[in-house]
């Protein structure tokens, strides 16, 4: 009787989908935007954050469900509308809020 040992599990790659890699890129871009808010011009930082969210919405729109990774939270339509809507609102507000005297 031949008793083969169980095969070793295949080592998992992280992130396991292309969407996961894009998610990390969006997260890093948003982090850069927040750092710009803290250290430099807050308008530029918010526009970078808005750009990161808009890119996430675009990626969610074009990536298939199986490849979307952590970008896929709800239905595709809801994800895209929320990401692009929040990005647009942040971008608009960053340019529309008047400068305050110090």
What does the main sheet amount to? none
- Low-confidence parts, pLDDT < 50 over ≥5 residues? none
C-alpha Rg (nearest Å)? 20 Å
Strand composition percent: under 5%
Helices, by number, come to 3
Average pLDDT: 88
Task: State the secondary-structure class.
Answer: mainly alpha
Task: Describe the secondary-structure layout.
Elements: H1 18-39, H2 42-62, H3 76-96
Helix pairs in contact: 1-2, 2-3
Structural description of this entry:
The chain has 102 residues and is an all-alpha fold. The protein has one domain (18-96). The protein has three helices and no strands. Helix 2 (42-62) runs antiparallel to helix 3. It is elongated.
Q: Features of this protein?
A:
102 residues, mainly alpha, 0% strand
């Amino acid at each position: 009787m031949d008793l083969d040992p169980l095969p070793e599990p295949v080592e998992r790659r992280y992130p396991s989908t292309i969407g996961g890699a894009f998610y990390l890129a969006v997260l890093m871009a948003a982090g850069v935007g927040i750092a710009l808010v803290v250290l430099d011009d807050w308008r530029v930082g918010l526009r970078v954050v808005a750009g990161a969210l808009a890119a996430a919405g675009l990626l969610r729109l074009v990536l298939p469900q199986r490849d979307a990774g952590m970008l896929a939270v709800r239905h595709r339509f809801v994800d895209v509308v929320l990401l692009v809507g929040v990005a647009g609102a942040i971008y608009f507000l960053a340019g529309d809020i008047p400068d305050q005297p110090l």
